[in-house]
Design goal:
Layout: H1 2-14, E1 22-25, H2 48-54, E2 60-64, E3 66-67, E4 70-71, E5 73-74, E6 78-80, E7 88-92, E8 96-98, H3 104-113, H4 120-130, E9 133-137, E10 143-145, E11 148-152, H5 164-178, H6 186-191, E12 195-199, E13 207-209, E14 212-216, E15 218-223, E16 229-231, E17 234-238, E18 261-266, E19 276-277, E20 284-288, E21 291-296, E22 302-303, E23 307-310, E24 313-315, E25 319-324, E26 326-327, E27 330-333, E28 336-338, E29 340-346, E30 353-356, E31 359-360, E32 363-372, H7 377-385, E33 390-391, E34 395-399, E35 411-415, H8 418-425, E36 430-434
Parallel strand pairs: 1-2, 2-7, 5-8, 6-9, 7-10, 8-11, 9-12, 10-13, 11-14, 12-15, 13-16, 14-17, 15-18, 16-19, 17-20, 18-21, 19-23, 20-24, 21-25, 22-26, 23-27, 24-28, 25-29, 27-30, 28-31, 29-32, 31-33
Antiparallel strand pairs: 3-4, 32-35, 34-36
Length: 439
């Protein structure tokens, strides 16, 4: 027995202890070149990226946001590589990551004016840096908490470069640089920048909470997320790209390519299961020009099994919430929709998505809910009548004699305007009106 005990003791002693490390960053007093910089709050690093470079998987980076009562602003694009899983970013006193000083596109323009094929590699270096996001996550199990991230927008997008041959040179260069499995289109290239937080398809199990994200073309864009938690964030003033690739208004053609999305969970060819949006603490999404929260893709159907959208507020967005072609049990409950152009727009037929117990306070377009014709009329009827949603204004919908929703030009509508509902009915069908939990 004693021998067994000694063997177990030797085994436990021989296991290497995990060395958890704290790194400190203070942009006001820090220095990236001093010995042992970052090991204490009195000897901090100056930049977040250098802390990432020094850190190992599982370490924590504490970023200071205040010095002598003045906010500290970090003009950075923080890239977390695939070998940095489990990093935790903690903001102390609300540090600000600002994209406003990125002038890299201008430098690309200058190089492109005199560019020859031999110079592609130099252009490529600049383009890598121009994929500008507050955080760019390639690794998994990352926590980002307590930051303000602002001004990552398309003041001068890649597709605005003047001539098609130069656009192609840039596109080819980026594709070569990123070594992706498939060549990116110019549409897709636009997505790779201008996000407050961008998570690649290799980045899952992330926690993003209690951040402020302002004036970014995408607030949070997770490309193939699984089991991510997004809680307590305040996301506001999210503009579409200045030169939208599509001339139609967002309400006529909803597209992730257009920017202006507060939170986007995109499947990227894989299931996006187990994501929790606001389940612990609701997010506030205000003035997202295109969509407040979008889950799915306009072109492919994928699972979003066991995902939850709870306790969030959608205010003054183009569309508050838009599920796109998703399957699996998705719970959308206890959210508040206020003054959006349209509160909820449903693409495809998310058969197991439960949209209930939400509060609708009125929509600017007088359309609270819009769904494609493929969304079954019985499901649409239940969404309006039987799912315990609270409508503070009377809702009117065109139905037939069997109380089945009528599709108008491929869409079903629940409106706050009785006149518009009567137009939908076309003098042939009837209008059913209801309010407050379907009564």
């Amino acid at each position: 027995m004693k021998r067994i005990f000694l063997i177990l003791l030797w085994f436990l002693i021989s296991i290497p202890a995990y060395s958890y490390h704290l790194y400190y960053v203070n942009g006001a007093i820090g220095n990236d070149t001093l010995p042992d910089a970052g090991n204490s709050s009195k000897n901090p690093l100056a930049t977040i990226q250098n802390a990432v470079n020094f850190a190992s998987s599982g370490d924590e980076i504490i970023v200071e946001g205040l010095h002598n009562n003045a906010s500290i602003i970090y003009y950075e694009n923080v890239v977390v590589s695939s070998k940095k899983s489990g990093l935790k970013f903690t903001g102390s006193n609300n540090p600000i990551i600002d994209g406003d000083n990125f002038q890299l596109i201008d430098s690309i323009r200058k190089k492109m004016k005199k560019s020859k094929k031999a110079e592609i590699q130099h252009v490529s270096d600049s383009i890598r840096l121009s994929l500008k996001n507050g955080f760019y996550l390639i690794s998994s199990s990352i926590t980002i908490k307590g930051f303000t991230i602002r001004n990552f927008t398309d003041r001068d997008t890649l597709i605005n470069l003047p001539k098609p041959n130069k656009q192609k040179l840039i596109k080819d260069s980026i594709n070569k640089d990123l070594k992706l499995k498939h060549e990116l289109t110019l549409y897709e290239l636009q997505e790779f920048h201008s996000c407050g937080i961008y998570g690649s398809a290799l980045s899952i199990n992330n926690i993003i909470e209690d951040n402020i994200i302002e004036n970014c073309n995408y607030g949070i864009f997770l490309d193939g997320p699984v089991k991510c938690e997004i809680n307590g964030n305040k996301i506001s003033d999210i503009p579409k790209f200045k030169d939208d690739l599509f001339t139609n208004e967002s309400i006529k053609r909803i597209s992730r390519y257009s920017g202006g999305v507060g939170i986007l969970l995109y499947p990227n060819g894989i299931a996006i299961d187990g994501n929790l949006i606001g389940s612990k603490k609701g997010n506030s999404i205000i003035n997202a020009e295109n969509i407040g929260l979008c889950i799915g893709s306009e072109s492919i159907t994928k699972n979003a099994e066991q995902s939850k959208v709870n306790q969030n507020t959608f205010d003054k967005c183009g569309i508050g919430f838009c599920p796109m072609n998703i399957n699996g049990i998705v719970e959308v409950t206890f959210n508040t929709f206020k003054d959006n152009y349209i509160s909820v727009s449903i693409l495809g037929f998310p058969i197991d998505t439960w949209i209930g117990d939400n509060t609708f306070l009125g929509a600017v377009s007088e359309t609270e809910i819009m769904a494609e014709e493929v969304y079954d009329s019985a499901f649409f009827y239940d969404l309006c009548f039987a799912n315990e949603n609270v409508f503070t204004k009377y809702i009117h919908a065109a139905v037939n004699v069997n109380s089945e929703s009528i599709a108008v030009e491929g869409k079903r509508y629940a409106r706050t305007s009785k006149e518009k509902a009567e137009e939908d009915a076309g003098g042939v069908h009837i209008v059913k009106s209801f309010t407050q939990r379907g009564r």
